């Protein structure tokens, strides 16, 4: 291969997903890897859950690998800040962190990576930064924390302990410095968690109003593209129903959910997607007259026909529901959902609820429909929402630099 051919070939891009669950990460991977900026480039997808690769059109057996993982034995502990999330994910022990970094570096080297895209993959981002691989952090906000000293509290609506936050940062930064030394990257031993996420190496795949960390300086870049799960399945919702139709996208088999469905079914025509529940539980829900989908559905086909949405607060569904101008009731199950729900509740864009109080949830649905202020929503969504050219410029800059580096090495 000539120098010109080396410089002009498509880029080798390693797209990494390490932490978190659900389908949001693979939905983003699908939407982003399909963009025109990446035509001619080769992807390697390093996934936390390889079974979800079917949601990524460009993923196949040949370009798929397992992301290095650390199993958190205390996964239900509430993390005060992003540093603690990493400490719980293998970075409390330098031996575990070193194993993670070495595995990521092996993946990058074998793929001859020209660009690493980290989607909630902080170990991959640290490995790439230490070894000098071009890095792009991509996420919906939660995965790209605002750099600060100390790193900001995740439960911003509660009182935080600044000394505790600083201590967590210091513990993580000591491990990063140790890993830099052990991997032969002593020159980067000053790398800290607050250095990892910057406006120039990060793109937020969301609308500014849905940023988990709130208002950022104008140097941060947003691209609020929708990233729905690719499926043709839908729910058959008639144009006219006897009672107001609502859509529920919920998870689990909590008995309180049965109580909630019973109450909702007495007031509304309920159409639902229920994940993480066994067949017996699902049969009980159907026996109440709930229209339960057999699998994931095309959300954008459902939303125009319903009066309101009940969900746990996943940013994908929330953004789709807001774009469809629908009232939303959010019952968060974990931290990321809670952060988004509280941000949006402060803006009067959603109503917060708890599955532990089914009667209150049912009441809030009607309140949300009756008090829905589309003017507030429109004013919020009309904020500066990003320019697709941002993607083109950033990707060309990163992959162009990689091509120049390849030529220089030959």
How is this fold's topology laid out?
Blueprint: H1 3-8, E1 12-17, H2 24-33, E2 42-47, E3 64-66, H3 82-91, H4 94-110, E4 115-119, H5 122-131, E5 135-139, H6 162-182, H7 193-196, E6 202-204, E7 245-251, H8 255-265, E8 269-275, H9 279-287, E9 291-292, H10 299-302, E10 308-311, H11 315-323, E11 328-330, H12 335-346, E12 351-352, H13 358-371, H14 374-381, H15 388-409
Parallel strand pairs: 1-2, 1-4, 2-3, 4-5, 5-6, 7-8, 7-10, 8-9, 10-11, 11-12
Would you mind describing this structure in some detail?
The protein has 410 residues and is α/β, with parallel strands linked by helices. Helices cover 41% and strands 13% of the residues. The protein contains 15 helices and twelve strands. The protein has helices at 3-8, 24-33, 82-91, 94-110, 122-131, 162-182, 193-196, 255-265, 279-287, 299-302, 315-323, 335-346, 358-371, 374-381, 388-409, and strands at 12-17, 42-47, 64-66, 115-119, 135-139, 202-204, 245-251, 269-275, 291-292, 308-311, 328-330, 351-352. The strands form two sheets. A six-stranded parallel β-sheet has the order 3-2-1-4-5-6, with helices on both faces. A six-stranded parallel β-sheet has the order 9-8-7-10-11-12, with helices on both faces. Strand 10 (308-311), helix 11 (315-323) and strand 11 (328-330) form a beta-alpha-beta unit. The radius of gyration is 22 Å and the shape is globular. It starts with a helix and ends with a helix. The model is unreliable at 1-7 (pLDDT under 50).
């Amino acid at each position: 291969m000539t120098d010109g051919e080396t410089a002009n070939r498509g880029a080798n891009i390693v797209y990494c997903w390490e932490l978190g669950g659900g389908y949001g990460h693979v939905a983003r991977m699908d939407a982003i890897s399909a963009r025109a900026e990446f035509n001619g480039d080769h992807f390697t997808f390093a996934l936390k859950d390889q079974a979800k690769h079917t949601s990524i059109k460009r993923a196949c057996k040949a370009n798929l690998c397992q992301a290095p993982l650390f199993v958190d034995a205390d996964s239900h502990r509430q993390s005060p800040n992003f540093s603690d999330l990493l400490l719980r994910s293998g970075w409390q022990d330098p031996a575990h962190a070193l194993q993670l970094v070495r595995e990521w570096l092996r993946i990058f080297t074998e793929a001859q990576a020209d660009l690493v895209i980290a989607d909630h993959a902080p170990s991959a981002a640290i490995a790439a930064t230490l070894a000098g691989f071009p890095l792009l952090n991509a996420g919906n906000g939660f995965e790209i924390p605002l750099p600060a000293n100390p790193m900001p509290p995740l439960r911003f609506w509660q009182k935080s302990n600044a000394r505790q936050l600083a201590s967590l940062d210091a513990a993580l930064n000591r491990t990063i410095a140790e890993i830099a030394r052990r991997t032969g990257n002593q020159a980067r031993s000053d790398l800290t968690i607050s250095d990892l996420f910057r406006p120039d190496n990060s793109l937020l795949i969301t609308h500014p109003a849905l940023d988990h960390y709130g208002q950022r300086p104008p140097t941060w870049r947003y691209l609020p593209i929708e990233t729905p799960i690719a499926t043709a399945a839908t729910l058959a919702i008639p144009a006219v129903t006897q009672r107001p139709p609502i859509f529920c996208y919920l998870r689990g088999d909590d008995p309180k959910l049965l109580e909630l469905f019973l109450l909702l079914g007495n007031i509304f025509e309920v159409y639902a997607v229920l994940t993480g529940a066994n067949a017996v539980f699902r049969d009980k829900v159907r026996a109440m007259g709930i229209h339960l989908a057999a699998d994931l559905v095309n959300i954008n086909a459902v939303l125009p026909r319903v009066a309101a949405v009940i969900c746990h607060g996943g940013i994908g569904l929330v953004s789709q529901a807001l774009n469809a101008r629908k009232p939303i009731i959010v019952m968060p199950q974990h931290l990321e959902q809670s952060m988004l729900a509280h941000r949006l509740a402060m803006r009067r864009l959603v109503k917060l609820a708890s599955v532990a109080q089914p009667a209150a949830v049912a009441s809030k649905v009607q309140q949300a429909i009756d008090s829905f202020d589309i003017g507030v929503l429109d004013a919020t969504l009309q904020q500066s929402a990003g320019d697709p050219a941002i993607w083109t410029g950033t990707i060309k800059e990163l992959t162009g630099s990689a091509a120049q580096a390849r030529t220089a090495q030959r």
